[in-house]
Queue: 4 jobs
Job 1
Amino acid sequence: MNTQSRALRIAAVIAAAAVLPGCAASAVQHRSVSVNTPCGDRAVQIIAQNVNAISSHRYAAASRTAERAARISLACASRERSKRQAFSDRWRGANALVVAAELAHQASQQHRANRLLAEGYRIMRSLQPPAHVSALTSTLISQTRDGAERDLHGQWSFW
């Protein structure tokens, strides 16, 4: 994979992590001011900060970082009252686990890659999108599941 397509893939993962929750969430006006970063935003920030490790081909470190973002997002989902936000957090976490698996595969950590991929894919398959998702959200969900299924069949996505 050339450098330009790798950069596009990295940008797509970051965009999906940031866009998917917005696509699935309802428009709600918030009037409270918070000093703390919302739980799910912490996971998105970690994913965004992982670009340098991926670009530098430090796949083992990038995989661990992606897994950390996944664990944070999944923890957020367990505390979330809104079904839409819980879906977004769980989906982000599952996607980050798949990314962590792909990066572990790149780092020749096959056992870890298989474990993370199985966990991420299991979560993806168990999730039901909220009613009335946008076409963009539906497409992102489908593409992400398809990529995970290819990984499961040994056609790993490379970074």
Note: Confidence is low (pLDDT under 50) at residues 18-36.
Job 2
Amino acid sequence: MSDEIRCEGYIKKGSFMTFGPRQWEQCKNDAVVKVTSIQDGEETTVPVCIDCWKLGISHKIEITKVVPI
């Protein structure tokens, strides 16, 4: 059994431009940090990879804490 933790980031696939249904797909990368963020007034902590962490920053998600795994 692997000790790796899978990233809990989700990526939107498909849209009206591709004429396919919009679906959310879980990131396939291994998590490297646990990120605590506040969205819609709710604080959550999830394991994420570097790419999803950067994506959250680019979308201006309020990140309050980051801890290496």
Note: Strands lie at 10-13, 23-26, 33-39, 42-48, 62-68.
Job 3
Amino acid sequence: MDKIEVYCLNYNNPERNKSMTERFERLDISCNFYHGVGKDDQRFEQIPINEPYSIMYGHLDMIYHFYHHTDKPYGIFCEDDILIHKDFKQYLPKIMDDFQTLNLDVLLLGYLVTCNINHEMNLKVNNENNEDFSYKYYNVSNDIWGAQMYILSRENAKRLLDKYAIGYLEQVIQDSSLTPFSADHSITKDGKRALLYPLLVIEDGMKNYDHFGQKFFHYQCYINNYVEGSHI
């Protein structure tokens, strides 16, 4: 863990902060909690706030802290409504070695998927792992969503900040053809990208959604990927 800094986005939710703090303590992982971005943030003085914008700025602020206030080569960033595999810390050294070998910019450890990913899908395996490692790496298709947890290289962190942190939202408002100002449209899909499967991190299935389709989709993601006794 000496090469990795870990961050969790937690906006105005003490209950989730408590549960995530306990989760990382059980994993013996030190995590930086970020309080998020509210309507009083100066970046919303001229722009009406909405949830995707707030979340995106929250992710960018965590990335900013990682890049400007640490000298670590890699950052792990997550949201606060997740369950994490109990052996996460033990798997991480192998994953980081593969991250370097594959020369990745971003690796998704947690995302939204309702079906099993396999070799026959339109997601090609990036490389073959050692036989004793049960996880595989696949390319990230444009219909994979979610920024539940991901790894960034230091170099990619700077590229993302240069591209999205200042002025990009204003450009999007003027030009809807640009990549939306949303974490799982941009941060998780910018640069050389891959996902890890099976998932090491899943949504906890506790969040309520007003839209029935969203509620059903997120619940199916949870049901399809939850393994009793494996996630904490």
Note: Residues 32 and 219 are 28 Å apart (CA to CA).
Job 4
Amino acid sequence: MFANVKIGDRTVPMLAMASSNIYYKRIFGEDPIRLQADKDLTSGEQIEFAMQMGFVLAKAAEAQGDRKKMLSLNEESYIEWLDQLESGDYVDPHVLASILAVYNGNSPDSIEKKEEN
């Protein structure tokens, strides 16, 4: 699923693929499927997961299928990417929900419409 996610005044292209979970695990050392299944995950851990997955999805959109670019990513790449964003913008609940919507194969626009009702 491809979608643009608005983070502050920036529009960030994001691409979710079946391989997103593998790239996440390589970069952050944790299995994202197990993380999501963990019912004891704190709110902070859920936010961290969404932020990290947002990075993976954004980099996948940038790489446009270039596996070497994706395999070169690491935690330092994540920090460099975060340095480009305002913290308050990125941890906004709507932004995080939009990231998770893309990851789960849903349109982020449907999140906005549901919240307006």
Note: Strands lie at 2-7, 10-15.
